[in-house]
Amino acid sequence: QFARAVLIQFETYIYHKNKSRLSKLILFLFISTSSYISLFAQVNINQQIDSTISRASLYLSDTNPDLDFGSYALIHFCNLKYGVQMPEYEKHAFSRIQKVYKGKENEWINFKRLIDKKAKPLRWKDIKNTQSSIDSITLQALWSDKLKINKTDYYKSLKNLSEQGSYELTHALLACVWLEENNVTNTQIDADFALLKFSLIDKINHQILTNVKFWSDLEIEAVALLLYANEKKLVKPEYIQSIIHSQKADGGWVYSEAVDSSSLPHTTSLAIWALLQYSHQPLSADTWIQFKKKRK
């Protein structure tokens, strides 16, 4: 940062006193040095991220009774989108999911589309039987290309949900992205949804990610969803460094600041997703819902 500040001042001087060849040479060296510093910093952060993800992969590969469907779906998507290889995790994860949800399959089966593009479409009665307001909103977005959604009513529900803050706010943004992936809304023509999405992004940035004292599940989810919504410009490098530094010795991340809080697959999968989106080029332009590439 100091080198860049000096460079700016020096550039100003040179352009006003553009007579000396030596000055031009010095300016060239300054520019080259500044570019090298930026490149070195980017390589360094990418190496840190790769090392962090590697440790997290080992954590997820261990037998873990706290594995949830959301974590599995996220890692499944990261595998497709970024080529993340976790052979031991992939080998046992789904069988563990089936054991965790034995007798309560409805808690995940409605979201099966996230891992199976041929999943049976949801019906309105399935959504009406959903007791969670967050799940109701996100399921409608997930299946919005199959269901006939009243945009006016859904907009009101989405806005009301987001006003509660916290996870309701982050999931409202997730729903907006899924609506776009299903080509149900388009921010170029749906002004109300475009303004709402902008408002959600602004609230997440200022309500959740301002003056963070502890990087818990919510803050990491907020960063991941800003990146998912193509708002990388709002994700400060210090956010990524904070996520990296909050990784625990076992390779995972904790849900909250509670003294007895231990690492959880959900928070860990969110951290992996956020780090991959920030530093890695995707292998495909396909979206999560409409992914066309087959899993290897």
Topology:
Elements: H1 2-16, H2 21-61, H3 69-82, H4 87-100, H5 106-109, H6 124-128, H7 133-142, H8 151-162, H9 166-181, H10 191-208, H11 217-228, H12 237-245, E1 253-254, E2 263-264, H13 265-279
Antiparallel strand pairs: 1-2
Helix pairs in contact: 1-2, 2-4, 2-13, 3-13, 7-9, 8-9, 9-10, 9-11, 10-11, 11-13
Give a written overview of the molecule.
The longest helix is centred in the first third of the chain and has 41 residues, at 21-61. This protein has helices spanning 2-16, 21-61, 69-82, 87-100, 106-109, 124-128, 133-142, 151-162, 166-181, 191-208, 217-228, 237-245, 265-279, and strands at residues 253-254, 263-264. The protein is globular and about 75 Å long. It is an all-alpha fold and 296 residues long. The chain has a two-stranded antiparallel sheet.
**What's the overall geometry?**
globular
> How large is the radius of gyration?
22 Å
Q: How many helix segments?
A: 13
Low-confidence stretches: 36-41
Count of β-strands: 2
Overall pLDDT? 84
Please state how the strands of the largest beta sheet are arranged side by side: 1-2
Give the helix level as a range of percent: 55-70%
Strand content: under 5%
Q: Note the run of SSEs as H and E.
A: HHHHHHHHHHHHEEH
